[in-house]
Design brief:
Number of strands: 9
Number of domains: 1
Largest sheet: 9 strands, mixed
Radius of gyration: 17 Å
CATH superfamily: Nucleoside Triphosphate Pyrophosphohydrolase
Distance between the termini: 19 Å
Low-confidence stretches: 1-7, 12-16
């Protein structure tokens, strides 16, 4: 299903036809937390903040906090704004950890596809007391719990791949290519499939 030319993708929703990839910022927000229950390992470990999406696409899936990079914003400003809007946290930009070109293929012919250019950034939010907003509930997860979400199909596959690839990164901005097959309209109900997530040549 992979294609080298973007014209093979169906029209993008809300853009009046084909155009440029939609720029998106997403946040890797981590903080050390002590064990939350007697069953957890008795040492401090990093937890990552995720949001369970209230809207389409990917309704009900856990995801990285983030959204559209608005015209005129710096990358840091876009990231901080999205974190505040979705969690109420006062965050600071730490670093750009990676860039992902993600093309979303529809599960059926004549359905809508999409193309996103995703800027994966590390952010710091010392307070950590995220509050649920209209975008969805938020929660902190250990790496082991995130693996469980992935096994259960409860996290967006490309967001899981971004966490797996960039969460421990000490360097910035490797470029990855991602492709998924997924419904992007409210009437479709199909599984989400990650077709490709690898470092660009």
């Amino acid at each position: 299903m992979s294609a080298e030319v973007l014209n093979d993708l169906p029209d993008q929703p809300g853009r009046g036809g084909r155009g440029s990839p939609v720029p998106i910022v997403v946040a890797l927000i981590k903080r050390p937390l002590p064990p939350q229950s007697p069953g957890e390992a008795q040492d401090v470990q990093d937890h990552f903040l995720l949001i369970r999406r209230n809207g389409r696409p990917y309704y009900g899936k856990w995801a990285l906090v983030g959204g559209k990079w608005e015209f005129g914003e710096t990358l840091a400003a876009a990231l901080v704004r999205e974190i505040r809007e979705e969690t109420t946290l006062a965050a600071t930009f730490v670093a750009l950890r990676g860039v992902v070109s993600e093309r979303v293929w529809p599960p059926a012919a004549n359905a809508r596809g999409a193309h996103f250019l995703i800027f994966v950034c590390e952010a710091a939010a010392p307070d950590g007391r995220a509050q649920e907003q209209r975008e969805g509930e938020t929660a902190w997860f250990t790496p082991a719990q995130i693996e469980g979400l992935h096994r259960d199909g409860a996290i967006i596959p490309s967001d899981y791949a971004m966490l797996h690839s960039f969460a421990g990164a000490a360097v910035s901005a490797p470029l990855y290519e991602a492709e998924m097959r997924a419904p992007l309209d409210a009437t479709a109900d199909h599984p989400i499939e990650l077709l490709r997530f690898d470092e660009a040549a």
